[in-house]
Specification:
Helix content: over 70%
CATH topology: Tetracycline Repressor, domain 2
Order of helices and strands: HHHHHHHHHHHHHHHH
Structural class: mainly alpha
Shape: globular
CATH architecture: Orthogonal Bundle
Radius of gyration: 20 Å
Number of strands: 0
Largest sheet: none
Number of domains: 1
Length: about 300
Amino acid sequence: MQAANAIRAPIVKLPRYLGAVRIWESLYALPFCYIGMMLASVDSGGSGWPGWSVFIWITVALTGVRTLGMSANRIIHRKEDAANPRTRGRHLPTGLLRPAEVIGLAVIGTGVFFYAASQLNTLTLILAPVAALYVVFYSFTKYVTWACHFFLGWALAISPSAAWIAVTGRLDPEPMLLSFAVAMWAGGFDVIYGCADYDFDRKYGTNSIAKRFGIGAALGTARTMHLLAAAALLAVGLWMELGPFYYAGWAIAALLLALENSLLKADDLSKLRSPLFQYNSVISVSLLVFTILAVAL
């Protein structure tokens, strides 16, 4: 009976574990990861599909490293999460999960990531420790620099270049440009979300662009970053000579970025709670769909 209960407990808590690492937010990075995977296949003379084995292990690797990164983030920031009204409802502050359980998630994520990397190619496995260390390291940057948003952006930006390496066994300039686009896209949104914590960061001592330069400057920085992201995505399409479907997806992504940025004012962040910001992963998903069409048709 005790053994059955021991097995049942993790199953019952599975939704909590998935919620703690915000598994649904994988939609931010996963589509760009798949775009990198498809473009690597095309660059290598393929059809855009590298095969089921590569696809599965890339997906498993990204899931593992993201579980590591989010679990580490929750452990590292658990005191601020408990003090911040915006985050005190998370799993550790409310006691839904214990620190040991979240550390366990990080260990499992690390093991899954390294095993998946070993199933791809030598360079992927060699670089896996670098990626793992970085996704843990970036969580500390909020304590020391207002540039923390850029570090977060590059944590997500690893995925398309990593997928390219997983397919080709090498790192080329094209995926690095795609990674730059992701870094500007994700980092820009983190700058925006940092504006919502402006008062808390000033009181608690954590860092952000909004705290250092003001909310108006932070919103201007986010707009510039998103403009750079759109330009880089356009450059990827031109560089790799992708078809018109890609540019249709790019236009949707660019328009959504412009719309989201237009909703926010330095003296009015109320629209930050709108559904558009809650589901802005539609940008990466739409770009993935249109990239698939551009490659397949």
